[in-house]
Here is the input.
Amino acid sequence: MKYVMLFGGTMEGIDQLEGDVREQAMADYRRSNQWFEKYTKAGKVVGGEELQGPSTATTVSRQNGKVIVTDGPFIESKEVIGGFALVEVSDLDEALAMAKEWPGTVEIRPIVDHSQERGG
Amino acid sequence: MVRVLGNFDVAEEVVQDSLVAALEKWPENGIPDNPGAWLMTTARRRAIDILRRDRRYAEKVALLERSTLPGDPAEADDRLRLIFTCCHPALPQDAQVALTLRAVAGFTTAEIAAAFLVGETTMAQRIVRAKRKIVAARIPYRIPEGTELPSRLDAVLAVLYLMFNEGYLSRGSFVAARRDLAEDALWLASLLDRLLPNQAEVLGLRALMRLNLARARARFDAGGDMVLLPDQDRALWDGAAIGEGIDLLHRAAALDAPGQYQLQAAIAAVHSESRSWAETDWRQIVLLYDTLMRFTDTPVIRLNRAVALNRVAGPEVALGEVNDLAIALGGYHLFHATRAELLDELGEKALAREARLQALELCQNPAERALLERKLRG
Here is the structure.
């Protein structure tokens, strides 16, 4: 079963942080890299990337049939998506166990399996 | 069965089908000596309904109750898997409750809808959505192990506790106390205890439910009016059930793993063992609340503690504690009702009346409303 994990948080703005907060952010970042390493080696992570910050995002949307290009991410939430991983595990509990080791917020979404569909 | 068929929906339909078949035969042939334990769980309620029409009802119900204990360990595991799947934290809690009632306790969707005062369509959608997520997100049909078990068990207990309170306290406006739902929650807790023995909090929750239900007969007078704990006729309490509850609590305590349900049960036990409201060991109760707050510190628990504190430290101190909860509990009728009682004791009649009117405005339970109205009339 494949799931995509969407990770909340970004390294953008890390330079503005100071002291303990910055230390914590750096430690979390190291842990997230270790997480990717561990689960890639174990064959559980089969894809994924860290994303550049939300200030680099561009959104293409449609309003009244017109295509509009705007600056910024399209998801209006407090948490920005900082990266994603495509994982292949047996079930949701295995995905949950992995996500619990991630140093931050994770949304887990099962992927739509098109492999059983007939071509044409 | 879900494990074998790999699909929650199909498995449930099979269970329902075998259920219908069994129910058609039982009235003719009687209950088989050793009915499938799995079927018994799901069929229990429906079977009881049908058996109610039978002359040998009591005898047969007793047989049904006994046979809920699966003889086959594989069947016990199956049922435990089902409970943990229904109460999976990836499902919204209201759906966890509904699924557990549907798949484990054998309620119909209409019955669950009625119990939670929502439309049948809404409830059906809630259940369908949850089942769809179980399949789509592949929520596994398994018993959690190791370090995962305590938190998953907590989720199951939370569902049973919510179910019990819905039946026992019943916030809704139609029925004052839906004892049936409370009794089903107790039955599920007992089942869980048998499937997963020697879990202190499971025993604690069983004890809590048992002790509360033991007082059920005294909660309403002959005219159907609600009677609060201080005024209850304690002779109406079920002494045998209290004994059972206390016994369960002792078994829980022996496991040396305290938790919120055991502490709440211990508080209920102190009340159950007191000859009257006045002779209650209030110091002990305040102490138990203090310990309870180390496990779960909620405004409602603080409010209940303040009621006990009143008996130890007086209404002025208690009112101070209650007033601190104004922001958290301003919309809760019992916050205002408690304030009214304390203000009455302090001789602040006008303020007490004001608080009681606010309580009445927020309260939906007809029995509690009637009680507040009686007090307002003086």
Remarks:
- The first helix of chain B runs from residue 2 to 5.
